[in-house]
Amino acid sequence: MSVWKRDEWKCRYCGADLSKWPDWLNLTIDHVIPKNSKNRAGSKPKGDIESTENKVTACRSCNTMRNQTAYKIPSAASFEEQIKIVFEEKKEQILQRRNDFMEFYRAHVAKQPP
Ligand SMILES: [Zn+2]
Questions:
Q1: CA of 37 to the centre of ligand 1 (A)
Q2: What would the DSSP string read from start to end of 31-73?
Q3: What's the predicted TM-score (pTM) here?
C-alpha cells in the first residue's frame, strides 16, 4: 500500500492512472531489481531486494511485459543507482513492447486506430 500511495496509484512505467475503479484492480508491485537477479545477473544488488525503494507501482500489463532476462547491474554503483539504472532499462523495454503490441493491434484488430 505504501508503494502505491507513494506512486499516487500510477504505473511508473506507462504512467497509467489506476486510482479509479475498476482500474485499481490492475495495480501491481514490481521489484525493479528482480528477486531472482542474484542467480542471473553478473553483479549482485547491494541492498535489500524487498525494500520499498526497490519496488514500484506497475499496471498489470507493464508487469507482464517486462523482460524476463537478466539485467546488467553495475557493481560499482550504489544500490540507489543500481535501481535507477535497471528501472530505466526496464522502462525502455516495456514501452517498446507496448508500442509493438499497439502496432499489432492497429494492423490486425482495430477497425479504427486508437
Ligand atoms: Zn503500465
A1: 22
A2: ESS-TTHHHHSSS--SS-TTSGGGEEEEEHHHHHHS--SPPP-
A3: 0.86
